[in-house]
Design goal:
This protein is 68% helix and 5% strand. By secondary structure, the chain is mainly alpha-helical. Strands 2-1-3-4 form a four-stranded mixed β-sheet.
Length: 404
């Protein structure tokens, strides 16, 4: 094999790619802006939306309660609760977010409580709606306090200690570092984005160096040069791999800088001084480098597979239609790694993309399972080598290169 010939093809393709705006945007601009926008923009937006929902009064409706005036009056005096007139079609009002919650007070509720009888209050909500949850929480808090007050009165009347209400406490105490807690919650998002950026960075160069060459009519000129097909495909492959790795590297750098800014910049002060909950994700240099190393064979896999698929297309537009489904093939296992309860196992360690996503999630949390690391790295390298072998074989088939 002539490394000089491979280098000539690589240098030629690199110069042409640097003149392509689409490649530069997908390789440089998008990865540099993606993580700051997600980490800062969406973080602030989410915190602001939660804060606004917590401060906004909840519009509620009360069903029944005519024979429980003390309860209804107490509900009306709760801060950030606004009672609207009762109508029969309250379900549609909740569904259309006109009313955030509806509390159903059973007949004789207040009298039943006074007699010591057991009864139940129902709260109708829009499950999944943030503002509806806040309204229900305020109603539930009121009835919890009302229940405690009623029990306290009964104990006082019987000259019994109030400790009988709660003879013991149950407390949960976190023994894991804040970094690991945040990584367990949001760590799956990082490998997902890095893997997606690897594929995005490789997609446009792969299409341009195969289907684009066919469409421009330059594929025949390149094939007629005194360079073997193997050297030609390896030179093109190295260019696609360079774009993929550059995108991944810039994504990791942007990710590290974004989280560092959240830990030390004005965002931290704003989060600590505000009323909203702001979860910080600490990620160290070792975790950043580990994620990048695990992304290397994934980038090789994407580069070879995308080149092979795009080679079957006759035009750039046709190549886009072929490669678009690949996005879903990548997204599904990457998103699966973000689902709660899915943990790294020997069987999952050999599934492409999913294994790297699960492992990177562990690396972000600072957990290093060396057995899994070696197994996943070697298996991914094997898949990448197989994909590259197929790409070389496809470049040697005239029926693929000049498909009509």
């Amino acid at each position: 094999m002539s490394l000089r010939n491979v280098g000539l093809v690589y240098r030629k393709e690199l110069l042409e790619s640097l003149r392509d705006r689409r490649t530069l945007m997908s390789t440089i601009l998008i990865p540099l802006l993606l993580f700051p926008v997600l980490a800062v923009g969406i973080g602030y937006m989410g915190a602001e939306l939660i804060g606004q929902a917590s401060r906004e009064p909840s519009t509620i409706m009360v069903l029944g309660g005519a024979d429980s005036p003390e309860v209804v009056q107490g509900l009306g005096e709760v801060k950030n609760l606004r009672i609207v007139p009762t109508v029969p079609d309250y379900v549609n009002l909740i569904s259309n977010k006109k009313v955030r919650a509806v509390v159903d007070i059973p007949p004789g509720f207040q009298a039943a409580i006074a007699r010591g009888e057991r009864t139940a209050v129902k709260i109708y909500i829009f499950s999944g709606d943030l503002k509806s949850s806040f309204g229900a929480a305020r109603i539930e808090k009121f009835f919890s306090e009302y229940r405690d007050t009623t029990v306290r009165r009964s104990l006082t009347a019987e000259k019994l200690p109030e400790s009988l209400m709660k003879p013991f406490d149950i407390k949960q105490e976190n023994v894991v570092s804040d970094e690991k807690v945040a990584a367990e919650t949001f760590g799956g998002l990082i490998p997902y984005l890095v893997i997606l950026m690897c594929m995005t960075g490789a997609m446009y160069p792969a299409m341009d160096l195969t289907a684009g060459e066919k469409e421009r009519g330059t594929m025949e000129t390149i094939l007629s040069s005194p360079i073997s097909r193997t050297h030609l495909v390896l030179g093109k492959f190295l260019l696609v791999l360079t774009a993929s790795l550059a995108t991944a590297a810039l994504s990791v750098i942007s990710m590290g800088a974004s989280f560092w800014g959240l830990q030390h910049g004005p965002a931290l002060e704003a989060a600590q001084s505000g009323d909203s909950t702001f979860v910080q994700l600490h990620i160290g240099l070792g975790a950043v480098l580990s994620v990048f190393v695990m992304a290397l064979p994934v980038a090789v896999l994407f580069s070879a597979v995308l080149m092979t698929i795009a080679l079957f297309a006759k035009t750039y537009k046709e190549a886009q239609s072929y490669l678009t489904p690949m996005t879903f093939v990548v997204i599904i296992p990457a998103v699966a790694a973000m689902l709660p309860g899915i943990e790294l196992t020997p069987k999952l360690a050999i599934i492409p993309i999913l294994n790297v996503s699960l492992l990177c999630k562990e690396l972000v949390a600072g957990t290093y399972h060396w057995t899994f690391i070696i197994l996943i790295f070697l298996s991914t390298c094997f898949y990448a080598a197989a994909a590259l072998f197929i790409a070389v074989k496809m470049f040697q088939r005239e029926s693929v290169l000049f498909r009509s």
